[in-house]
């Protein structure tokens, strides 16, 4: 199954304090988001449930986010 994130790309600047509020919009399945290189994970989110990921952008680079609930 292909998971879609909206937006698909998030651009921040080094030094920014970032707060992402993510919501599982799939009405039937549990999902979550992880950004392994930043050691961030929402855990499992039930349909309609939201969570916050908060971090300081102190490392430059491109980081992949993916569903954390296989």
What is the topological layout?
Layout: E1 17-23, E2 33-35, E3 40-41, E4 50-56, E5 66-67
Antiparallel strand pairs: 1-4, 2-3, 2-5
Describe the structure.
There is one protein chain. The chain has 70 residues and is an all-beta fold. The protein is 0% helix and 30% strand. It has no helices and five strands. The chain has strands spanning 17-23, 33-35, 40-41, 50-56, 66-67. A three-stranded antiparallel β-sheet has the order 3-2-5, with no helix packed on it. β2 and β3 form a beta hairpin. The model has no long low-confidence stretch (mean pLDDT 91).
Q: Which labels suit this protein?
A:
0% helix, 70 residues, two-stranded antiparallel ribbon, 3-stranded antiparallel sheet, mainly beta, 5 strands
CA-based gyration radius: 12 Å
Main beta sheet strand tally, sense and closure: 3 strands, antiparallel
Number of strands: 5
- Across the major sheet, the strand order is 3-2-5
| Shape summary | elongated
Structural class: mainly beta
What is the chain-wise order of helices and strands? Answer: EEEEE
Percentage of residues in helical conformation: under 10%
